[in-house]
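In response to reviewer comment 3 from the previous cycle, which asked for concrete evidence that the modeling workflow produces usable outputs, we include below a single protein chain processed end to end. The sequence was submitted unchanged, and the resulting structure tokens are shown without manual editing.
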Amino acid sequence: MTARDIQSAAKKAGHPWSVAKGYDTFCPVSRFIGLDELPKPENATLWLSVNGEQRQRGSTSDMIFSIPHLVSYISNIMTLEAGDVVLTGTPEGVGPVREGANIEAGLDGVLTMSFAVEKQS
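The workflow returned the following structure tokens.
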């Protein structure tokens, strides 16, 4: 998730955009998925729907760099530990969501998760 209004203000001020992506609720993460459930992570289909309308669908096979390459590269810069999450980007289809929207996301045949968009005070 990205707070586009905050991102725009940061861009105008010449500040990093990370402030628009770092709120506690902006990156829902599912339960751990082991290789026994996802035997071919290099060809997994991910999707996201908002209020029942599919907005994003993509495959890990479309990634520029393979998962092993990314893990190797990152591991040469910083220590990765069990439970760490590596975020690589998102399939096309990014768009606005509004308070009250229901977001459902998943990995085909493996996992589905859903949550409501709520305004934080």
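The chain has a mean pLDDT of 91. We consider this sufficient to address the reviewer's concern, and the full set will be provided in the supplementary archive.
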